[in-house]
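Supplementary Methods. Inverse-folding protocol.

Structures were first reduced to a discrete structure-token string of length 344. This string, shown here, constituted the complete conditioning input.
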């Protein structure tokens, strides 16, 4: 019975992993990796910004859990004061390690953004990103049917398999466009600022081949729509920040939505610059048909630290008891005290 249970678990994971391989990684705190969300965010709002994300998934049922590490940096490199136009650049690197076979996907990209004003309070930004995608697998970590000796797996038995290529390197291109709107607070302490953003991005538009050996395995184009709103509740320390993301990649579709409630612990000093804002943020989100995500984040001066947990709601919960993924985020932005209602 124990062997049968293990087989059922492994089969369920295999089916689910096959669905995941057909699509890119998706973070539970996607707003903390804005350049990966849309290249039109590179250098859009701040002089520079650094973000790091770390995610570990399915530790409860896998000896080698799925692990994702992502780091990004973006900066504004040119501004035209008389028109409000600007140019930004960013770089992001993501590394995704899946399963005991160490199926590894590494992305390294550079993004360039251009912004133009559409009016006094809203503007349009466009971006393009390009880089490389590398996939590799450690065949020595895999097990094969021929290594079953009739009782159990025997590593001393040769698999009989011969592999000539363990990795694939391919160019990768993406584009994006985003509309942003922002109104500041009426007074220093009224907390009634309002902001909104909506964007569309497409990644792997050149459909890079990521198959091993002679296989042709073109990466599906990933289409992503994202929208977020920031609403300050007048004369209170609270702010609401709902976020919606819809993604489609080949046969795979994903919908993610929810909201942060932000509590301001300290106001920034607009004129002296001696104090920067501090806030405690609590978020709850739902990934359709997959999981519930709970997030806690502390924004402290120029830094932000976040932790989230995915509670599995799919059929996989039978085997992992709902224990999905844990994710950490870190951000550094040299925020000016008068920057209102940060969205991304």
């Amino acid at each position: 019975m124990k062997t049968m249970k293990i087989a059922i678990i492994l089969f369920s994971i295999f089916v689910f992993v096959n669905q995941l391989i057909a699509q890119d990684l998706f973070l539970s705190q996607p707003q903390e990796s804005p350049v990966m969300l849309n290249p039109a965010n590179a250098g859009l709002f701040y002089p520079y910004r650094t973000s790091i994300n770390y995610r570990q998934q399915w530790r409860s049922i896998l000896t080698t859990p799925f692990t994702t590490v992502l780091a990004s940096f973006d900066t504004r490199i040119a501004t035209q004061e008389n028109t409000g136009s600007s140019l930004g650049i960013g770089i992001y690197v993501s590394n995704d390690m899946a399963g005991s076979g160490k199926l590894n996907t590494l992305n390294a990209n550079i993004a360039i953004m251009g912004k133009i004003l559409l009016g006094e309070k809203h503007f349009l930004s466009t971006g393009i990103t390009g880089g490389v995608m590398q996939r590799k697998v450690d065949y020595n970590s895999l097990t094969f049917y021929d290594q079953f000796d009739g009782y159990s797996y025997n590593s001393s038995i040769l698999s009989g398999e011969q592999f000539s290529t363990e990795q694939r390197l391919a160019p990768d291109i993406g584009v994006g466009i985003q509309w942003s709107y922002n109104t500041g607070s009426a007074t220093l302490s009224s907390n009634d600022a309002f902001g909104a953003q909506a964007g569309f991005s497409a990644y792997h538009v050149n459909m890079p081949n990521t198959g091993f050996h002679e296989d042709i395995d073109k990466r599906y184009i990933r289409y992503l729509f994202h929208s977020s709103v920031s609403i300050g509740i007048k004369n209170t320390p609270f702010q609401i920040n709902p976020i919606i993301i819809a993604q489609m990649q080949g046969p795979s579709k994903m919908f993610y939505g929810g909201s942060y409630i932000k509590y301001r612990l300290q106001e920034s000093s607009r004129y002296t610059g001696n104090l920067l804002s501090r806030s405690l943020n609590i978020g709850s989100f739902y990934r359709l048909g997959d999981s519930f995500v709970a997030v806690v984040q502390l924004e402290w001066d120029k830094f932000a630290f976040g932790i989230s947990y995915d509670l599995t709601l799919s059929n996989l919960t039978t085997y992992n008891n709902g224990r999905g993924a844990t994710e950490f985020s870190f951000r550094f932005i040299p925020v000016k005290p008068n920057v209102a209602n940060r969205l991304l």
